[in-house]
Every structure is written in structure tokens, then in C-alpha cells.
Amino acid sequence: MGSVYFYHLTRKPLPQTLAILLDKSLAAGWRVQVRTPNAERLSQLDTDLWMWPEDAFLPHATSGDDQAQQCPIVLSSGDDPLSGGASGDFSCLMALDGATVTAQEVQQAQRVCILFDGHNAEAVQTARVQWKTLTDADCAAQYWSEDSGAWQKKAEKKPASGE
User: Fold this and answer.
1) Which DSSP letter does residue 99 get?
2) Which of 33, 37, 73, 139 is positioned for an S-S bond with 134, CB 3.0–4.6 A?
3) Domain count for the chain
């Protein structure tokens, strides 16, 4: 059973934080789907991941690319399923821009990360709704904030089942 981590971004830009999390995910041996409901954001992320980090390479493809099956990082727009279909199976889901995440996906994945802009009231409200929905469905969850300059765990909800 996986868990969902909420990352409240207030200092570093999304591409930089995403690159750090993707690098850690690859180090853990995970295959990652990065999901956004915004097709324009998908194109920008594709470009950003060629730029960040400056001293490393994050092999990725978009879900429509021929290389997507072989890539450890697949960028997708909409609500592509976490496993199955042309995109293959993923160990980790990174959801951006309020992308839909289901309790079933949290339970199937090693980790789900929800990244949201702390300077955008709508994004914060969407993350709050996602937290409530997923924890009410008995998903393990952690809330991380970078307000102090370093990432700190501010809240944690363990499943009632004790897993």
C-alpha cells in the first residue's frame, strides 16, 4: 500500500522541485508518471526537464511518444490511468495543477506526490479537497512545506487499518 505526499511549494519553482523529486524517484528505481490536466503545461514541462537539473539528465517522454514505453519518466495530460494501457505500469505518480488522483492509485503505487503552488489560493483549496478525499478513503498521507526554507513534514495521517 502506497502513500500520498503533498508538497506545498512556496520558495522553489515547480520545475526545480519536480526535477529533485524525479531524481530521487529514479534513484529508488521507480518508473514515474507526471500528470497534469493542462496540455500547455505538459509541453512546458517537457522543455523544463531538459533544462533542470543543469548537471544531470532526466530521461523522459510524453505519453504519446513512441519512446514512452521505455522511458522511466512519462509526462501525461488529462487523467491517464496510473497503470495499464500504452503508458505501462508506474511505481510513482506526480500530480500537478490539481490533476485527479484516486485512492486506488495511491494504494497501487509506491508513492503519489501532489505538488501545488502555495501562492495560488485555488491550488491550495484543491489540495485541501484532495487531502480530505484521500485520507477519508483511508490513504496514508503526509503534508510537506518549504516555508522555513527547507522541506519539513507538517502533518501526517495514517490509515485506520494501521498499514
Assistant:
1) -
2) 139
3) 1
